[in-house]
Design a protein that fits this description.
Arc Repressor Mutant, subunit A; mainly alpha; 10 helices; about 180 residues
Length: about 180
């Protein structure tokens, strides 16, 4: 009679995702994951052909996690790109390791930054429409300018160099939008 499988793929993956959120992808090795999951490395390589396969699945989960985070975030303002900016900056602060994997790493497993941001539900596309409805003639150019500003703010927040209060950040994003549209 075959031994019952005690380490399931769901359990192993959940453990790896928890490690990702706490320690970053670079710290997820077969040995460290096995130690955290309370098993040998054998179940890992029975379930995954190699660590790269696990890392790619973790990346996809992180993409979905960001999209869920964005869509469940509080709405602060109706100005285009403000809510997206606030949520992105808050994600950088609250989920530093996921932020680094998704938005600062060289390997995005074939996804562009825009694809990750836009997600399956078209978050960025909706911001383009809002900007066009307010009279913006080139929402793509506006997005690029806003995104450089937003991404810089998020990066500064994870290093501790950005310490503006929420209301100040909202006002800053609104002012940037108005300045870039003009």
């Amino acid at each position: 009679m075959a031994r019952k499988e005690t380490i399931t793929k769901d359990y192993l993956f959940a453990t790896a995702f928890e490690m990702l959120r706490e320690e970053g992808i670079e710290n997820i090795t077969a040995r460290k994951l096995a130690a955290r999951a309370g098993c040998s490395t054998q179940p890992i390589f029975r379930l995954y052909s190699n660590m790269e396969e696990l890392w790619q699945e973790l990346f996809e989960k992180a993409v979905d996690y960001f999209e869920e985070y964005y869509h469940s975030a509080k709405l602060y303002d109706f100005t285009p790109f403000v809510n997206l900016g606030i949520t992105y900056i808050q994600f950088a602060v609250e989920e530093k390791q996921l932020f680094q994997m998704l938005f600062l790493a060289n390997n995005r497993y074939g996804k562009s930054l825009y694809e990750i941001l836009n997600g399956k539900m078209g978050a960025v596309g909706r911001e383009f429409v809002k900007a066009q409805n307010e009279g913006c003639k080139n929402p793509g150019d506006l997005f690029m300018k806003m995104w450089i500003f937003i991404h810089g703010s998020a990066c500064m927040s994870i290093t501790g160099d950005y310490d503006l209060e929420l209301e100040d950040t909202i006002q800053l994003l609104k002012n940037a939008y108005r300045g870039f549209v003009s």
